[in-house]
Amino acid sequence: MITYDPLWETMRRKGITTYTLIKKYAFSRGTLDSLKQGRNISTATLNDLCRILSCKVEEVLCYLPDEPPSEEANTKKRKKTV
Predict the structure, then answer these.
(1) CA 57 vs CA 44, 45, 80, 81: distances in Å
(2) Domain count, the chain
(3) What's the gap between Cα 55 and its chain centre?
(4) How far is CA 62 from the centre of its chain?
(5) DSSP letters along 14-55, please?
(6) Which CATH number belongs to the domain containing residue 18 in this structure?
(7) How far is residue 67's CA from residue 49's CA, in Å, rounded to a whole number?
(8) Could you say which of 18, 21, 53, 64 would form a disulfide bridge with 27 (CB–CB 3.0 to 4.6 Å)?
(9) Coil, strand or helix: which one is 56?
């Protein structure tokens, strides 16, 4: 799972607000909503954020491994495919 939690700390540290991203850098509210909701963003958006914030990718997003499916979930999955 990808999380954008590092982005908010980086923005705070750099003194950039969501208002600044919208007004000065023409970010859409939809893109910011996607970031807040943890939805997918494009690599172009990721590139823009790194450029604006003068930061590395890991200061914008973080990869967290998904939990392995439980045995119960695997059993249900097998029953559906049979």
Answers:
(1) 12, 11, 39, 39
(2) 1
(3) 15
(4) 8
(5) HT--HHHHHHTT---HHHHHHHHHT----HHHHHHHHHHHT-
(6) 1.10.260.40
(7) 28
(8) 21
(9) coil
Residue pointed to by tokens 């807040």? 36
Q: pTM of the full predicted structure?
A: 0.78
* Residue-range definition of the domain harbouring residue 51: 2-81
Length of the chain: 82
Question: Contact at 8 Å (CB) between 58 and 4?
Answer: no
State the greatest distance between any 2 C-alpha atoms of the chain, in Å, as a whole number: 55
- Best CA proximity match to 2, nearest among 41, 29, 51: 41
